[in-house]
Design brief:
Elements: E1 3-7, H1 15-30, E2 34-38, H2 43-55, H3 63-77, E3 85-86, E4 92-97, E5 123-131, H4 138-141, H5 145-153, E6 156-159, H6 162-170, E7 177-178, E8 201-205, H7 211-223, E9 227-231, H8 246-255, E10 258-261, H9 264-272, E11 277-279, H10 285-293, H11 307-313, H12 317-337, E12 359-365, H13 368-373, H14 379-389, E13 393-399, E14 406-411, H15 414-418, H16 431-442, E15 447-450, H17 453-466, E16 472-477, H18 485-492, E17 498-502, H19 506-509, E18 516-520, E19 523-527, H20 529-535, E20 558-562, H21 566-569, E21 581-585, H22 588-597, E22 601-607, H23 630-640, H24 642-649, H25 654-661, H26 666-678
Parallel strand pairs: 1-2, 1-4, 2-3, 4-5, 5-6, 6-7, 8-9, 8-10, 10-11, 13-15, 15-16, 16-20
Antiparallel strand pairs: 12-21, 12-22, 13-14, 17-18, 18-19, 20-21
Bound molecules: flavin-adenine dinucleotide (FAD) and iron/sulfur cluster.
């Protein structure tokens, strides 16, 4: 009989950790392999984890939370006798690293362990199965040479999610295989107790909810006449708040009318039991990944008041049964093939992200005036012109002239659309236009929604819920993040009698520079204050620092951006420094629209790979790291206001002030640059 040793964090006190270890063991056993779990005790992990918990404020302050947590941990630990443990003695055919976040090098609280990247000395082969790097990025992985070297040295690499797949490919290992979490591999039916509760109920599995979210869940339960069973944390607001064993926990899921969760294993076990469910906090890369893989992205809670809609729509498992079954089979085959048990075909070695070879146009509007009024090359105008000419409606961000806040507006004429031109570096408010978008779609109008990738994705989800075959086209851009509207409001209010604002004054300073202009008392004032807060990564929304859209794959029909690196790609194209756009399509609808729009633009065909876009290289791990002083900045900001943080956190040196005071306008600098180039 073949022998396997499973090396994983099996004893973390949560359902997912226990169930993944148990499922791997049982799946192998069912397939005639003697599987044991390494009685693993990492000094590094325990020591670093303990140190971290000492430094960090305890997240559980409430005594009742502590009691609940202890009860839940006990229920998990009590089931650990079901895991067959080995203290590292004997020889093994295959050592299996995983599953779960064993490669999360960014995880400071649990601390990763070099051991999880190592070939096991007493095994013929060492592989990974469903390993996950959490939200680590390639830059983090590369800080640990043993991690890179270890992964490269494995006999086979099976990973659980998009991000880990990208990281492994990024370090040059093209033969990585995507597999499902091991809890998909077995049928838990035979291990489960009888139904836990006679009443019908909603099942909530979460580590915490705010009061607004609790109210929405209560509303749903009331509307559907269901009880609420909540687990994962102390929830005095639920009808029942048990601390079940892992198998009782699955039983609760199995019999629930609907599951609401924020966790990966809550999501996976809902799918495993073919339950209708809703996931919030779905920006977690591992949750996004499994939802995407199984065509279930529409189960995300995009707004809490769409909970009832998710409940009513249910999940059409019959449509995706083939996908789920095929993925389970491929995952099982991969694991068994390591023991010579099944035929498994390896994918080709060299891999390249297919988006990189997608045609990408370096383009600028033929009309010079349009270019100067736009942030980049005016591609937005060229594309939206087509939609307007076809009788469609365009939604985009516009500055409100009354208070200089930024909102999304609806345009049916070119004049209205022109007000949406240009980048506003602040979060735009969508709330007023969502009803209009719904109405337009119901009336079968073609709608072009333009905005940040997260806004476009949310509107796409909304539209799919309103009407199948709707005529929504989405356009997004490479997005570095959106700053806080509050800071923008406070900043504008530091000036008197403001009549106009420009977040990035291209006409005055050219395409490359980033200087804001505020017209105060009829005098334009050019500054780099708000811009600097933004560029120093103090004021983007917290979600932007963990943005899953910061990657090559975009979910809109069309993606735009500034065509940085243009000089090297097409010297002379931007002869007047009015800017150039990069334009690429992500769908056939996008391709068709771009083809028509290119008629009003000068363009050169290139590929996405040629674009210089650091945000797209972030593997969905956020646009940037927040400034290390961000927390202190916000504390000071809240306590002392904008003038205080301006002095404390921005460059106020004499040299900087001189530079700010002598800022020659664009035409002078551009002419000098041109003359210097000629000579
Ligand atoms: C906050 C922000 C961050 C950006 N970060 C990058 C980056 O890192 N790299 C890069 O290459 N390009 C970035 N861009 C995109 C780029 O600056 C241009 O918006 C894009 O290339 C379109 O330019 P255009 O000349 O075709 O048309 P423009 O007329 O300039 O396009 C205006 C478009 O931008 C949208 N828009 C403007 N402000 C907002 C806002 N606050 N929220 C939502 N939508 C808005 C409008 O709805 C409209 O679709 C960013 C844009 C914004 C608004
Ligand atoms: S960076 Fe990401 S989260 Fe932030 S606005 Fe852009 S798309 Fe949305």
């Amino acid at each position: 009989m073949k022998k396997a040793l499973i090396i994983t964090y099996y004893d973390s006190e949560n359902y997912g950790a226990f169930l993944q270890a148990f499922a791997t063991q049982e799946f192998l056993k069912l397939n005639g392999i003697n599987a044991e779990i390494l009685k693993y005790n990492s000094k590094t992990v325990k020591w670093l984890g303990g140190l971290y918990r000492l430094i960090k404020k305890p997240s559980i302050k409430d005594e009742k939370q502590v009691q609940y947590h202890n009860k839940m941990a006990e229920a998990v630990v009590n089931e650990q006798h079901r895991l067959k443990k080995n203290d590292g003695t004997g020889k093994f055919d295959v050592a299996i690293l995983g599953s779960d976040e064993i490669w999360n090098v960014k995880n400071v609280s649990g601390a990763h362990d070099p051991f999880m990247f190592c070939r096991y000395k007493n095994a013929v082969k060492t592989i990974s199965y469903a390993a996950c790097a959490g939200n680590s990025a390639i830059k983090h992985l590369k800080c640990f040479p043993y991690a890179v070297g270890g992964i490269k040295a494995l006999d086979a690499v099976g990973v659980r999610d998009d991000n880990t797949e990208r990281l492994v490919k990024g370090i040059g290992r093209g033969d990585v295989v995507r597999v499902l979490d091991p809890t998909f591999l077995i049928d838990f039916g035979g291990y489960l107790p009888k139904r836990m509760l006679d009443e019908k109920y909603l099942f909530v599995y979460t580590y915490g909810l705010n009061s607004e979210q609790i109210e929405e869940i209560k509303k749903l339960a009331q509307a559907k006449k269901l009880k609420i069973v909540a687990t994962g944390c102390y929830c005095e607001w639920a009808d029942y708040n048990p601390a079940p064993t892992p198998f009782e926990w699955i039983r609760y899921i199995k019999d629930a009318e609907f599951v609401i969760t924020s966790t990966f294993h809550g999501t996976v076990l809902s799918i495993q039991n073919r339950k209708s469910f809703a996931v919030y906090k779905s920006s977690s890369p591992k949750i996004q990944s499994v939802l995407k893989e199984l065509s279930l992205l529409d189960r995300r809670v995009t707004a809490w008041n769409n909970l009832e809609e998710l409940f009513d729509n249910g999940v059409e498992y019959s449509n995706i049964e083939n996908i789920i079954e095929a993925r389970i089979k491929a995952s099982g085959d991969f694991l068994l093939s390591q023991f010579g048990k099944a035929i498994y075909t390896k994918p080709e070695k060299s891999w390249q992200n297919p988006v990189l070879t997608e045609p990408c146009y370096i383009a600028r509007h033929k009309d010079r005036a349009v270019r100067w009024d736009s942030r980049s090359g005016g591609a937005f105008t060229a594309i939206s012109d087509i939609v307007l000419a076809d009788g469609g409606v365009v939604y985009g961000a516009q500055v409100n002239k009354d208070n200089f806040s930024v909102q999304h507006t609806r345009a049916v004429t070119k004049q209205e659309r022109d007000k949406q031109r240009g980048s506003k570096y602040v979060q735009s408010d969508l709330s007023a236009c969502l009803q209009n978008i719904k109405r337009d779609l119901v009336e079968d109008k073609t709608v072009l929604f333009t905005g940040t990738p997260c806004q476009a994705d949310a509107v796409r989800t909304l539209a799919d819920g309103i009407k199948k075959n709707n005529k929504l086209i989405t356009l997004d851009f490479v997005c570095h993040g959106v700053p806080s509207p509050k800071v923008w409001e406070d900043y504008v209010n530091t000036y008197e009698n403001v009549s106009e604002v420009n977040f990035r004054d291209k006409k005055a300073f050219g395409w490359g520079d980033h200087i804001e202009t505020i017209v105060s008392n009829n005098k334009p004032i050019h500054k780099k204050v708000f811009t600097s807060f933004f560029h120093l990564d103090f004021i983007s929304r917290p979600s932007c620092y963990e943005c899953p859209y910061a990657q090559y794959e975009h979910f809109s029909d069309i993606t735009l951006g500034d065509c940085w690196g243009l000089e090297k790609l097409a010297s002379g194209f931007n002869d007047d420094d009015s800017g150039a756009s990069m334009v690429f399509a992500n769908t056939d609808v996008g391709r068709g629209l771009i083809k028509r729009a290119l008629q009003s633009m000068d363009y050169i065909e290139s590929t996405v790979a040629n674009m210089k876009q650091p945000v797209m290289e972030s593997c969905g791990m956020g646009t940037a790291l927040p400034n290390p002083k961000r927390e202190a900045f916000w504390k000071d900001y809240r306590e002392n206001g904008i003038d205080f943080v301006k002095v404390k956190y921005l460059d106020n040196s004499f040299k900087h002030r001189i530079k700010e005071a002598i800022r020659p306008p664009h035409f002078i600098r551009f002419t000098i640059k041109k003359l210097l180039k000629k000579n």
